[in-house]
Amino acid sequence: MIASAFKRAKALPLSGKVGLALVIFWLAVALFGPMLAPYPVGAFVAYEVFDGQSAKHWLGSDYLGRDVLSRLLSGARYTVGLAAAAALLASSTGTALALTAAVGGTKVDEPLSRFMDMLISIPSKIFSLVLVAAFGSSLGLLLLIAAFTYVPGNYRIARALAVNLAQMDYVQVARARGEGRFHIAIAEILPNMIHPLLADFGLRFVFIVLLLSGLSFLGLGVQPPDADLGSLVRENISGLGEGALAILAPAVAIATLTVGVNLLIDAIGFSGKGKGR
Amino acid sequence: MSEAPHVEVKSLTVTARNAAGEMFPIVSDIDFSLRRGEVLALIGESGSGKTTIALTLLGHARPGATISGGSIRVGDAELTKLDRSALAQLRGNRIAYIAQSAASAFNPSRTIMDQVIEPALIHDLMPRAQAEAKAVELFRALALPFPDQIGARYPHQLSGGQLQRLMAAMALITDPELVILDEPTTALDVTTQIEVLRAFKAVVLERGATAIYVSHDLAVVAQMADQIVVLSQGRIREAGAAAQILHAPADDYTRTLMAAAHPAIRPAPEKIALSAAPLLEIRGLTAGYGKIGKDGRPRIPVLRDINLTIERGATLGVIGESGSGKSTIARVIAGLLPPASGQVLLDGEVLPPGLQGRSRDQFRRVQLVFQNADTALNPAHSVGRILARPLAFYHDLKGNAARMRVLELLDLIRLPATLIDRSIGGLSGGQKQRINLARALAADPQLILCDEVTSALDTVVGAAILELMAELRRELGIATMFISHDISTVRAICDDILVLYSGTMVETGPRAAFGVAPFHPYTDLLIGSVPEMRAGWLEESHAGAAPPPIGGTGDHPDLCRFLPRCAARVDGLCNTTPPPRRPLAKGSQILCHHGDESLIPS
Question: Which part of the chain is the ABC transmembrane type-1 domain (chain A) (predicted)?
């Protein structure tokens, strides 16, 4: 199992290996980061704000004089965990509904698609504001909001793919064989839409990172003194003029995380295509 | 040697890079030459390198391939020595190319005229007005309808045959010295092909252009070519004058090609003692798309009043051109399209119209085999998984027993057992079609609906599939409905034949009845349009002659559908009264006002 995973990783093109390395790195940070952090998350440890790099503070200090590295190490957990869970939830829900629509015929497809069109027209920020205002901010709620917001987008893409695939001859053959809808959706259609769906997953992941960052900026996301990567960027925005590490470090972190995820997904899809799986 | 050849290709080699990154030749040692005004045909199966060679005459190699050796001379230009801009000067100007699928070669958002005169404008050969006048002249020469107005239309408003001729007009507008025709009629119905061939031949002769005609069809080439080059796997097998190749082929491979083009007539097997009900019976079937109106017809009717029976172990051939509704019959029987009215009976039992309500056993007994194995097999599944699914679904075979049966099936269709774990992507067209067939056999069916199963294949590969089907039929006693556009194939393998025109049955009868005249006028046109493998056939054939003039037709929905194209139509009868179904002495039934005595003997 591990050996075959290693073999597959070796077969990846260079960009895929870079992506894989970045993803593994950020997963490790998400898992072990808080243990490695040199200072507590909310402690004011530096005398100067927006301090540069030093032996004491590897990534300098932030706008309140807190250690950026410590905040980064503990913030990554929220971003990676929350965004990945929400993207997974959004993609699987959207795809499941899309498959239902594709094999269910017009009677299922039409109401479902129009309902999704309605959802897509709700501005995500306002929607989140209302929910957070009503229920108070919690990680579980943030996860649900992020997932719910991106279900319609994923549904649209997945439905477009599935409806096209449902017209393919092999699906017609399966229907004429008497196969049930569930088998057609899972065995005949789904395997052929995995690659574009993975690409879509990468995109959703990035969107959700941004949505969570936006919410954090408004004070509705991850609550201080904890912070996710997005809120680290936002809270240190005043240091941008000075080119402070406090804002560059989390920005680079978001970039490497999202780019890594997308590189890996593209590479998996590409090497998979050659094998016809 | 009175004059130097116009086009000369010497020891041409084209190489490409394979998956491992090594260079290997895709065509090698190609030599031929032709004099001004001659037509040379490149014949071969797919993968023989014929299109690759044709493209090198434009100085072009497909992405990944390079012209790595030899010389290509057209007139005074040595194409291998020219740079990009010099080649661009030649292409579409002195050398023109006509592609296989005109429907995808035209830009759908621009008018025909804009596209036809484009080469002349790009090369600055003449002012726009002159180019348009010349285009109209070419439209007339190519026998296109409404030559003065057709230029204002868009590609989607025209038929495939018309587009193919318009593409010829586009190629000829610059008066090229060399025209390359790459399978220009392969995608067309035979009845359209004959018109297009006539137009091509007239125009090429009249303009004295040198032409290279790429095709897999020897009979078509026989009409066009002075010289023939037979290719196989990137090498020349035989080259020579057309008459010699056609009548006295020296090479074994050429003989194989010739044999495959003439399917052997297979004797009908002994009829099994008839039980009470035929295996399949269709009664008064009408089907189509869209809402069903008050008169019981769908908004877009495809099939009208179809009646047919297939006995156990028998083969019924259904012929018609594209759009005739022949595939729709198979879809209705399989339950994919519920009919508007009429019944489908399997073994005397009425089948539920749609998929719902059919029992698993009813599904099992009727299996559908699609034309295009590339799309009919799920690319995400392996060969083993594709064949194992019907076994698990119908026969509850799992694990080792299923695997044994899959191996048996692979053996039955003459494929090696090692293919079992391969994915579909790595198989050849013929192998895929065999798997496609094997999947149907895995169900252990009584009736297989074969929709154009050999159309997408090379002649030799197609002949092998037909051979296999005949064998399976003998061994397993499975009845077949064989849908095809190719009357010679159908006549060779089917016991009964049904000719479909625009969704109506115009002639039905046993195979023997399709060997002797008289025929229904449409059957006559179909049979007369199949090219014969001899020069001069195109000039002699009367098929596709202009129909006699006729008065206006009422909007009676049951009038003869073939009326607009019929060469035997009668004014005052055909355009006022629906045709009756009447028997002919030879044993077939036709839908026509004419009887034995008044039909044109052919």
Answer: 76-265
Strands B280-292 and B77-78: unpaired
Q: Is residue A9 part of a domain?
A: no
- Report residue B342 as tokens: 């009429």
**Does residue A90 lie in a domain region?**
yes
Q: How close A275 gets to chain B, by Cα (Å)?
A: 8
CB A215, CB A142: distance < 8 Å = yes
Residue A1 resides in a domain: no
Examine the pLDDT at A276 and tell me if it is beyond 50: no
A276 lies within 8 A of chain B by CB: yes
Mean pLDDT over residues A246-257, rounded? 86
Q: Is A185 on the interface with B (CB under 8 A)?
A: no
Collapsing DSSP states into helix, strand and coil, what is residue B214?
A: strand
Report how far residue B467's alpha carbon sits from residue B529's, in angstroms, rounded to the nearest whole number. Answer: 25
Residue A58 maps to a domain: yes
Q: How much is the pLDDT for B80?
A: 85
Beta bridge partners of B283: B343
pLDDT of residue A274: 39
Q: Count how many domains chain A has.
A: 1
Largest interatomic CA distance in chain B:
77
Residue B601 in this model has a pLDDT that exceeds 60: no
Nearest-CB residue to B380 (from A169, A178, A192) = A192
- What mean pLDDT comes out for the span B33-59? 86
ipTM of the complex: 0.77
What is the amino acid identity at position B529? S
Residue A123 exposed, middle or buried by CB count within 10 Å (0-12, 13-18, 19+): exposed
Residues of chain B with Cβ-Cβ distance to A175 below 8 Å are 336, 355
* Torsion angle of the four alpha carbons B150, B153, B155, B161, in this order, in degrees rounded to the nearest 10: -20
Residues 6 or more apart whose Cβ sits within 8 Å of residue B60: B87, B91
pLDDT of residue B525: 87
**Which candidate from B378, B423, B425 shows the least CB-CB separation from A170?**
B378
A236/A62 Cα distance (integer angstroms): 7
Q: Do A176 and B426 touch (CB under 8 A)?
A: no
Residue B204: closest CA among B338, B34, B393, B448: B34
Task: Dihedral sign for Cα B104, B108, B110, B112, please.
Answer: positive
Under the banding of pLDDT at 50, 70 and 90, the label for residue A97 is very high
Q: What value does the mean pLDDT of chain B take?
A: 85
* pLDDT at residue A270 in the model: 55
Give the span between the Cα atoms of B560 and B339, in whole angstroms.
Answer: 22
Write out the residue range of the structural domain in which residue A93 sits.
Answer: 16-272
How many of the other CB atoms lie within 10 Å of CB of A148?
A: 19
Q: Which pLDDT value is given to residue B265?
A: 66
Q: State both tokens at A12.
A: 């990846």
> Are the beta carbons of A170 and B377 separated by less than 8 Å?
yes
Mean pLDDT across the stretch A104-108? 88
Quote the CA–CA distance of A88 and A81 in Å, as a whole number: 11
pLDDT band at B429 (very low <50, low <70, confident <90, very high): confident
- Given pLDDT bands bounded at 50, 70 and 90, which one contains residue B407? very high
Residue A166, min C-alpha distance to chain B (Å): 11
Summarised one tens digit per residue, pLDDT across range B486-545 is 888 888 888 899 999 988 999 999 988 888 878 888 888 888 888 887 777 887 777 767
Query: What CATH number has the domain bearing residue A206?
Result: 1.10.3720.10
What pLDDT score does B20 carry?
67
> Do residues B577 and B593 make contact, with C-beta atoms less than 8 angstroms apart?
yes
- Asked if B381 reaches chain A (Cβ–Cβ under 8 Å), the answer is yes
The DSSP element (H or E) to which B183 belongs, if any, is: none
Q: How crowded is residue B168: how many other Cβ atoms within 10 Å of its Cβ?
A: 26
Whether B368 sits inside 8 A of A277 (CB atoms) is no
Between the CA atoms of B91, B94, B99 and B104, what dihedral angle is there, to the nearest 10 degrees? 60
pLDDT at B502: 87
